[in-house]
Amino acid sequence: MFEELLLFNVADGDAARYLQEYDRLAAWVDSSLDLYKSELSRVLWPVFVQCYLGLVRRNATAEAHALMTRHGGRFRAGRHNEEVQELAAVAVPQHLATSRVSQAAAGARTHLGLTQFSLQLLLSFLHSARLTLALSIINEHIDFEVAEGAPSTAAQEGADAEEEAFASSQREAAPFNASELRLGILQGSVEDRYQTMRAAKAEAAATEVPEKDEDGKLLTKKARAALQRAAELAKAAQGEAANVDRIEPAVPLPPPPDGEAVLAIMAALDARQEVGPDALPSCAFFTFVNTAQSLNCAAFTPDSTHLIGGFADSTVRLYDLRRMGRDSGINGSVPNGTSVKKGGAARNGSAGSDSGSVTLLGHSGPVFGVDASADSQLLFSGSADGTVKVWGAEVGADLATLRGHLFPVWDVAACPGGAYLASASADRTARVWTTERTTALRLLAGHTADVEVVVWHPTCQYVATGSSDRTVRLWDINTGAPVRLFVGLRSTVTALAFSSDGKTLAVGCEDGGVSAWDVAGAGRLGTSQQHCAPVWTLAVSHGDGALLASGGGDNAVKLWSLAGGPGAGGGGVEVPGQQEPVPRLLHSYRTKATPVFHLHWSQRNLLQGTGVLTLPAPGRKQ
Question: Model's pTM, two decimal places?
Fold first, then answer.
């Protein structure tokens, strides 16, 4: 019977037959016994794609729309959701040349595994029902791998499909992941200074053992010997922590701060609290009120003194958290109202206004991404108008407009070393800019869908981008070429964060998943599905980078342990013998009714968060 299938070929069919035969095939699969339905359902997706593209190719718009309306819903709840959305956008023959799904399906053959009896049932139905067009599509686009034994269950079906998809995507990503990376701590950076300072303190503690305890009593020789051993162990541990690779800057960077700026940085580092699984951090959460329909994005400045908001009315607002806490008596909430002085459009607002906020006007569309430079002197914003603006934090002025993107800018990220910024856009590209000029330095093109999020690597040599195409790419800004491709994600990438040493990448997705990846090997260390809504923000603690904080649309902040380190799971799967998963959930904090827009670790490892108070509709339970 299988030979009969291979000999059966129908070259063409009228538009109505595509719809009629797929209706009958889908109805037969849905009415099959549960024992065989799971396996037989595998045939529906590739046949659906070919039927839809065949109708579009014949310019049968009405029939293609009817097919999508009747049967597209069965694939939206599964792993083909985004492909269905892309397929629905293909409406006329001219779209076929630019559609990723249509190009992939043009000459592809899908490999499907079926048991012998399930395949016999399928062929028997197709022949008896005379579904010649469906037979032709299956003959041309599907290769069956016949297996002996009982049909697989729905759970086995999903697991096998996901494993095969992940293995296939890993093979496709292999050429991108072969190059060598420069990973470590940027020489002269804040983290480099912190590690040096800790090593000096450990050295001093190991050589100077106190003779008296805290109460002023003399210590015994045994107690002093114990303190000596403890100090030496701490020194050795600190030496190992400080013995990480120091990476010299691969791109021109501004000189490091000096004078009072250095003293302020060292004072903050001296007061830094080490956090980890056994020492959870304190958290300060700032809630925006009366802005549920207007606030699109938010970010804290690196010095943790200001909060930036991007709004749907095209404004950017800068809130002085010190003034708000001292003068206005506001406890953890950010009001919508701001004082705006009349004047130039870009100079409205006053740093000395009573509300402690500045409103920056200049965009002509909603603002979707905001960030601040490493010294907190410049603000950056990306908008639906396709531009990136550079603002002066102190003067409240529009300093420059960066043009180049063709569609809305979804995210902006400032380089931790200063002088550069990156932007992500709906035009499927990311761009690298410098504050010295208004044209882009690098165009990062390769994603097949919107680039949703962008983040800098700690060494300032690489930029990571996350996309709706369910991949993350790492780009070398010296060459503009991708040097890593992270695949196997289940949904749109919505948040990214690097560890302090740049060796681990945390990824948050629209389906609520949080995963950790080894940057050098492009392998997945582990994944967890603890959020029940999209993950909108990720942040890794300073110092050893032991804690990951995540927040999203489920009104929760979650803390994770990244202990275990990169390198495990370098082949792209979790390590079978690993003692603890990475990331490992430690604790959850829930807000009453506030989705979490942004999380940030201060230099002292205080966790800061912000979001919008979103009360449920009257009569609805939260």
Answer: 0.71
